[in-house]
């Protein structure tokens, strides 16, 4: 081999080695991509993936995705999600498929879920529930008003008290009427055994919910509820006025936000904004309404809030007591009294 041939051979080798290395690297990358980033299946139906915790860490979601077979590698998902600029995923349910790549799934989980978790606390009136739903499900003001004034006012016994406090997984595009039916249906399911028990005790189910709604607003916690239930039953059985602040708060806020004290919200004057359950003033006790239990004997015409199971149980299993009065001190500890004189002494000792 002459000098020219040797030079050309060396020159070719010089360019061939990097090319070979580049080809090998591309092949390695392709294999790695196929192993960890590609879709687990070529053809698959859409499925549901639910993130249960609030502001779930991406690592937890990645592990669950891998466990359910939506992705091949949890590490790959974390890397891709990080490249998307997201460290957390909104809680809720997403529509994804095993035929999607990690990139596609990360893109979907970086957006808003198809179904959202909505938590309804105990003791809210339905206007407050409407505002929670509107915020989570992006209702317009018009949809929120209709939920309050129309969709939850179609049956008298379902105007208030039956929009059960719990955590729901609700499609973001579900119609407000369907949402009202969902909450009411869940109430029916949860209340069914207690409705049977109420019937056995010869108590109307609507009476149970009315009393439970009052207890829910009046109690400092579930431990107070049986005692308050016993006191309310004592007052009802002795034909005494209940004299409960929460019922006055309810009717006063109706007057403030509706202009009247509507029964079935037929005036449709409700506005979305509202400030509810503020302490009553002495002048509030002069409101002329069946909800004013300082003026009228017996229960209001409907519940004043949406109670949980502890309040419902307390109505059916009240604490046996001779007390007719109660108050909470500044630490929210309850004190009951058998006579008005004892109650006034408690007021002097604990509230003044």
Automatic annotation (TrEMBL):
GO molecular function, one term: lytic endotransglycosylase activity
Family: Belongs to the transglycosylase MltG family.
HAMAP family in UniProt: MltG
Its membrane topology: Single-pass membrane protein
InterPro entries for the chain: MLTG-like
Name assigned to this protein: Endolytic murein transglycosylase
GO biological-process terms attached to the record: cell wall organization; peptidoglycan biosynthetic process
TM annotation in the entry: 15-36
Entry's EC annotation: 4.2.2.29
């Amino acid at each position: 081999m002459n000098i020219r041939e040797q030079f050309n051979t060396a020159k070719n080798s010089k360019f061939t080695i990097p090319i070979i290395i580049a080809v090998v690297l591309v092949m390695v990358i392709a294999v790695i991509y196929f192993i960890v980033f590609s879709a687990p299946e070529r053809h698959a139906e859409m499925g549901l993936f639910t993130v249960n915790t609030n502001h779930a860490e991406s690592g937890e979601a990645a592990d669950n995705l891998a466990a359910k077979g939506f992705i091949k590698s949890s590490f790959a998902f974390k890397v891709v999600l990080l490249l998307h600029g997201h460290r957390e995923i909104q809680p809720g349910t997403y529509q994804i498929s095993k035929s999607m790549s990690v990139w596609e799934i990360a893109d979907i989980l970086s957006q808003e879920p198809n179904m959202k978790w909505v938590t309804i606390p105990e003791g809210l009136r339905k206007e407050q529930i409407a505002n929670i739903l509107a915020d989570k499900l992006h209702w317009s003001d018009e949809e929120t008003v209709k939920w309050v004034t129309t969709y939850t006012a179609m049956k008298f016994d379902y105007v208030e008290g039956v929009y059960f406090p719990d955590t729901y997984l609700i499609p973001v595009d579900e119609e407000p009427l369907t949402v009202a039916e969902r909450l009411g249906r869940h109430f029916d399911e949860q209340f069914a055994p207690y409705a049977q028990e109420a019937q056995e005790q010869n108590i109307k189910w609507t009476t149970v919910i009315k009393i439970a709604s009052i207890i829910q607003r009046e109690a400092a916690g579930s431990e107070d509820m049986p005692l308050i239930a016993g006191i309310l039953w004592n007052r009802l059985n002795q034909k005494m006025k209940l004299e409960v602040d929460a019922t006055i708060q309810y009717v006063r806020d109706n007057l403030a936000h509706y202009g009247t004290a509507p029964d079935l919200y037929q005036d449709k004057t409700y506005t979305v904004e509202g400030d509810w359950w503020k302490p009553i003033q002495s002048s509030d006790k002069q409101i002329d309404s069946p909800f004013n239990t300082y003026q009228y004997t017996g229960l209001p015409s409907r519940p004043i809030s949406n109670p949980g199971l502890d309040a419902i149980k307390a109505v059916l299993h009240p604490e046996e007591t001779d007390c007719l009065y109660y108050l909470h001190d500044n630490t929210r500890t309850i004190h009951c009294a058998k006579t008005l004189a004892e109650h006034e002494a408690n007021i002097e000792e604990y509230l003044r």
